[in-house]
Amino acid sequence: MRRPTPQQQRRNALLSQMESGIAIIPNAFQPRREDDPSRYTTWIYGLSVFMPDSDFWYLTAFPEPESVLVLIAGAQPQSILFCRPRDEEQELWWGKRIGPEQAQERFGFDACYSMDELDTRLPQLMQGHSRLHYAFGADAGWDQRVYQALNQLRHPKASRGGSVFPTETVDIRRNIHAMRRIKDAAEIDIMRKAVNISVAAHLRAMRACQAGLYEYQLEAELQYVFRHHGAWGPSYNSIVASGPNACLLHHVDNDRQMQSDELVLIDAGARFDGYCADLTRTLPVSGRFTGPQRDIYDLVLSAEVAAIDAIRPGRPMNTAQQTHVRILSQGLLDLGLCQGSLDGVIEREDYKRFYMHGPGHFLGIDTHDAGRYHNAQGEWLNYQPGMTLTVEPGLYIRPADNIPEAFWHIGVRVEDNLLVTEHGVEVLSADLPKSATDIEAIMRDGALH
């Protein structure tokens, strides 16, 4: 007997949580390309590519669009997939399809059917269940399809004789997202690969960086490494932000020519087998930090290192932000960029002029992965073993009359990817150097040019 796949184990766990009823978890349903009727699409780098729905991918790893997972809980739980049928003509144009028969064997479903049968079979599968686990409001197209099945069961002819059909709806995302917040061993292995590919890409960008290049040329170095090592591509549109662009939190135009006296902030990660990495390093374009650049860089790095050291299981998830704010605020006071007392700067939130974002986020199938940070009372939840997350303090100093000109256009962010363990954290991206001295050495000794 074959060992259950990680996705089968997750489906079984979800079925146990459901206890009763039927769940419907559709794959991505997005606008279609006019010239490609077989795929649903999203956009990366201006290119149209299919991206599976994250919850669907977590439970199936099934890679094709126009598919839906149906779970039936109870004494005899079932896991059923509907997917596209084999079609010789369509496959000639758009590539081979897996088809229901192969999908059932390959992905461990109890049954698989063609999507052509969904509207007929779905009411039959719903019948006898009083609870529907489905995320109404997430997608209007799927909502209409589910309502259509429900309306068939509500019809007087169908309900004659006391037939049971769903009258209670539960948002299935709450269960799935709670599961996704804690990564299993298979997920962690994939994320290690995504992070390692991203580390290699950042190292290549460090070695390639020089004055006169355009931001998009460093972006191309990143993309080359991503694809060369088998990643799907970037987890998100890569940020390569030089000079004043480094003070924009999500600069993605990447069209500016870099100058020798500037910093370039690179925020980029690979998506491998559906899972994301998200790393940031800030480099001196010339290969050496100026005095003010080094002051800001070392301050941000010290906040990041202290926050990583502070994260432990059982501590509240605002621990990293509290650490960032205290260290950055003291450093801004020391550099004369804030005035008054440390407690005053924090209470008045003066630091937000230079540090205006959060400490990081969950990481996984989505770059900002699923999972809650607060309980129902609004209190911070605690870090738990198996969580994967980013830590990413930054400082962004824009020109102003009361800011010394030497600090103008200095934007610095340092970001690593972490796994919370039983006793602390493992820095998954530890192989990517981040001290100013190490970065300068790589840019000096390992240059590609």
Number of domains as seen in the coordinates: 2
Shape: elongated
Instruction: Tell me what portion of residues adopts beta-strand conformation.
Output: 15-25%
CATH architecture of the largest domain: Alpha-Beta Complex
Radius of gyration: 25 Å
Mean pLDDT: 93
In DSSP terms, counting alpha (H) and pi (I) runs of 4 or more, how many helices? 14
State the helicity in percent bands.
Answer: 25-40%
* Largest sheet features: 6 strands, mixed
Quantity of strands, as a count? 21
CATH topology of the largest domain: Creatine Amidinohydrolase
Unreliable stretches: 30-41
What would you call the structural class?
alpha+beta
CATH superfamily of the largest domain: Creatinase/methionine aminopeptidase superfamily
State the end-to-end CA separation. 55 Å
Strand order of the largest sheet: 8-7-6-1-9-10
CATH class of the largest domain: Alpha Beta
EC number: 3.4.11.9
GO molecular function, one term: manganese ion binding
InterPro entries: Aminopep_P_N, Creatin/AminoP/Spt16_N, Creatinase/aminopeptidase-like, Pept_M24, X-Pro_dipept-like
Catalytic activity: Release of any N-terminal amino acid, including proline, that is linked to proline, even from a dipeptide or tripeptide
Walkthrough of the structure:
It is a single chain. This protein is of the alpha+beta class. The protein has two domains: 6-179, Creatinase/prolidase N-terminal domain (Creatine Amidinohydrolase, Chain A, domain 1), CATH 3.40.350; 182-445, Creatine Amidinohydrolase, CATH 3.90.230. Helix content is 36%, strand content 18%. It is built from 14 helices and 21 strands. It has helices at 6-18, 54-60, 88-94, 100-107, 118-126, 140-154, 156-159, 173-181, 185-208, 215-228, 291-310, 319-334, 342-348, 436-445; strands at residues 22-26, 32-33, 36-40, 42-44, 47-49, 68-72, 78-83, 111-114, 131-133, 168-170, 233-234, 239-242, 263-268, 270-272, 275-276, 279-284, 388-391, 394-397, 410-413, 416-420, 425-427. Strands 8-7-6-1-9-10 form a six-stranded mixed beta sheet, with helices on both faces. Strand 14 and strand 15 form a beta hairpin. Helix 5 (118-126) crosses helix 6 (140-154) and helix 9 (185-208) crosses helix 10. The N and C termini lie far apart (55 Å).
